[in-house]
Design a protein that fits this description.
D-Maltodextrin-Binding Protein, domain 2, 7 helices
Length: about 280
């Protein structure tokens, strides 16, 4: 995909996420929506489904494969050169609790010569505050708030663990996070919802965030992966391995670790020692 085409698709993606965000906010303000559980601690609402419909209708026009959290996976995406990885409403629990910490996100992954997929484009929209974070491979990561001009994102340059801020999940924090923080001398731990944690890492508002469990999926991290990398940081599994996308089983079996990059290897080692 040439640079101009890449930019055009990214512009279309951003427009689509904002349209989905408008629909989500209508439910958010009205408080008139259905809630059901897909599994323990895994709610889905009318807002999730409305957002998913907008995303599928708009992004489906490109003719790429699609993997979405809220759609049945018929595996037709496998083998395609380009595939959308979509989360129509990340942080549904935060949406239900009426925090502003929920997002809509999508990444476009591309197949390489080894038939492995890495992100080409990614965008994350926080509709309650009208903030959007986005990136194109090789072109940097950016943030925009409302009508303000885009800012280029760059991760923190902090290298001393005890001076760092860990961003932890508000709904799914783990005991290992607390142990790693304690053994590393990290005392500043901030709890946040959804993909905002990695967006804020890209914007120097923290240095590391991780989830060691196998309870996250490709759609939870795909857009974030590109944004943090383009901001100069790293996102891998908790063993330090590159994460590839559009797998037959899209679960992140070895969790994920996102950092400012400078302390990534040392955190991988620390996690390995304490697991």
């Amino acid at each position: 995909m040439e640079k101009t085409e890449k930019q055009n698709v990214l512009d279309g993606l951003i427009k689509t996420l904002k349209q989905a965000g408008q629909a989500v906010m209508e439910y958010y303000r009205s408080q008139d929506y259905d809630i059901r559980d897909k599994g323990p601690g895994n709610p889905v609402t009318s807002a999730d489904l409305a957002s998913n419909k907008i995303l599928l209708n708009s992004l489906g026009k490109y003719g790429y494969g699609i993997l979405s959290e809220e759609s049945a996976d018929d595996k037709s995406r496998l083998g395609k050169d380009l595939v959308w990885i979509i989360d129509p409403l990340d942080g549904t629990a935060d949406f239900i609790r009426k925090t502003t910490e929920f997002t809509i996100m999508a990444g476009l992954v591309k197949k390489d010569a080894d038939n492995k997929y890495r992100p080409l484009l990614g965008a994350i929209y926080r509709p309650a505050t009208d903030d959007i974070y986005y990136a194109a491979s090789g072109q940097g990561a950016y943030a925009e708030h409302a009508a303000e001009a885009a800012r280029r994102l760059k991760v923190s340059a902090e290298t001393e663990l005890k001076k760092m801020t860990m961003l932890s999940s508000r709904s799914h924090s783990t005991g290992l996070e607390k142990i790693v923080a304690k053994r590393s001398g990290i005392t500043n731990i901030v709890s946040l919802g959804s993909s905002l944690k990695i967006c804020l890492l890209a914007d120097q508002e923290g240095e590391l965030s991780f989830n060691p469990s196998d309870k996250t999926w490709e759609w939870d991290i795909c857009a974030s992966d590109l944004i943090i990398h383009e901001a100069g940081g790293r996102l891998t599994d908790i063993e330090g391995n590159t994460i590839y996308y559009n797998k037959k089983d899209p679960r992140n079996k070895k969790g994920y670790l996102a950092t400012n990059g400078l302390i990534h290897d040392s955190v991988v080692k620390k996690i390995s020692e304490l697991r």
